[in-house]
Amino acid sequence: MAVTESESRQKPLPKGAREAMEQLNAEAGALNIWLRTQANAPAQRPWFRDTGLDMAGQIAGGRVGTGQTKALAHRWRWREISAYLDRIAEIARNADVPPIEFADRQQFLLTNPGFGGRLQVASTIRCAISIYNPGDIAPAHVHSPNASRTILSEKGGYTNVEGERCDAHRGDIIITPNGTWHDHGNEAEQPVVWIDMLDWPLMEFLDCAWVDQEFHPASGTNAKSQETIHHNGYSNHLYGHGGMVPTFISHQLGFGRDPSPMIHFRGTRIREALDGLRREKGDPHEGIQMQFVNPVTGAPVFPTLNYQAQLLRPGEATLPKRETSGTFIVVIDGKGKTEIGGETFDWEPNDIMVVPNFIWRRHINTGSGDAVLYTVSDSALLRNIGQYRAQGKDQHGKVVQLVQ
Ligand SMILES: [Fe+2]
């Protein structure tokens, strides 16, 4: 309701400007406006000035801070969470209608404790862990979020992306760029487990998250599975020649902006590539690290998310690093610990961690063998909008600018 002249006259305002404005705010809220009574209080302090390893950031309070959120560092232990997959699979085997029919997927989603139950692990990343029983099919569909799956099972299961059949093996990364039709299933005799990662929270924030599974443009039907047009390994066949790309085909896949036409990165080849570089010095903050790229443009596979694999050799400890991007980590092999903002998380295969943006972190391989970590971060997005910065510490603890 509007404040009339007579109403204003009836309420003498206090002399103090803040109190006077707070009093007016009690009425003005009904008009969906707020008279400013606090200075800006963003969730991030000038992080690049802090040097303490325990700097984990605070969320500002008050009216300005309302609605701000901040991811917390967290580790999900595989030995604690994986039992729920078995329980989901058991329910599915015995149920009249399996969860995949009424919930689209058989999975649990990871929630970051800093986000109050929202389905996201970092500012831009959603993560689910899925189990497919023999015979399960997730019907062909298309959506605006970019997505990927990191395969945890030794073998079994497939993803079909725009007609290319991708047979899944442990350590594989299969991407489904926005605008690509894809379907999943398991024709093996054992359940198959993988980790889905999407930039869904970002699309949700932009209010452009959508999914369609009504009508497949190639087949003209809404058949459950796409017809296999390209054999397993097709995109490797075309693009797996490091530094060379074929000139006789279109590189456009789906309708996204320059999505990577290389959609299936094989775990065995990732490991070979890392191992082949093990005698290099590597990066003091990352060890031996490889980035997955669109082979045509050299850019990250998605304009939003950047995928990487890193090898930490026995005894290797990286130096502290922090970035404006958030990082999600899946332990593929080895044992170690990661310090994040002053907290130490030990890890073993299939454990999952999130390193929030702006927070110092470093990895230590504490095992007797190699450790391999896969990471996904929104550094691709932040680079694209000119917001990516990174700092490291040298061996003397001095802060060095890695990306200004
Ligand atoms: Fe999907």
Question: What does this protein look like?
Answer:
The chain has 404 residues and is α+β, with helices and mostly antiparallel strands. The chain has 10 helices and 23 strands. The strands form 5 sheets. It has a 6-stranded antiparallel beta sheet. Strands 2-3-10-5-8-12 form a 6-stranded antiparallel beta sheet. The protein is globular. The model has no long low-confidence stretch (mean pLDDT 91). The protein binds fe (ii) ion. Fe (ii) ion binds next to strand 4.
Give a quick set of tags describing it:
23 strands, six-stranded antiparallel β-sheet, 28% strand, binds fe (ii) ion, alpha+beta, single chain, 404 residues, 18% helix
Secondary-structure-based class equals alpha+beta
State the total count of DSSP E strands.
Answer: 23
Radius of gyration: 24 Å
- Major sheet strand order: 1-19-16-21-14-13
Bound molecules: fe (ii) ion
Helical element count? 10
